[in-house]
Amino acid sequence: QVFSRYVLNQPSTLTDELARFLMIWVGLLGAAYTVGAQRHLAIDLLTLMLSSRKQALLSVIINLLIFLFAGSVIVTGGVKLIEKTLSTAQVSAAMQIPMGYVYLILPLTGIMMMFYALCFISNGLKNMKHSEAGAN
């Protein structure tokens, strides 16, 4: 945008819109990555006081909630939004691309979050079994 405005003397609206769409995509991909890396905000003061079995159980419950939220809100809502915008032929103002393509990131990142949550649920269940076996 700086190049087109100051060098070519013709400000481009395409770069502004593209930057906005890319920021949405990067933000949502970052959210999915954060879930996968288990780097989301958490207050673990009480968690650290629990036994390893209870920590594993809490991890399973939290990841089950993440799975349900990602599936019901992000994936389902994203698919409905895509269907609606594609059926109404809504396009972006400057680039004239179908807005359904921009919104594709919602179900994609939701599916990624669901996958990560399933992996962590599986790990939590394994940890519960191991802590149970160690207690016996």
TrEMBL record:
Any GO BP: C4-dicarboxylate transport
Phylogenetic classification of the source organism: Bacteria, Pseudomonadati, Pseudomonadota, Gammaproteobacteria, Enterobacterales
Domain of life: Bacteria
Protein name as it appears in the record: TRAP transporter small permease protein
GO molecular function: transmembrane transporter activity
Domain Tripartite ATP-independent periplasmic transporters DctQ component: 1-125
Subcellular location: Cell inner membrane
Subunit description: The complex comprises the extracytoplasmic solute receptor protein and the two transmembrane proteins.
Positions of transmembrane segments: 18-35, 56-79, 99-121
Gene Ontology annotations for the cellular component aspect, listed alphabetically: plasma membrane
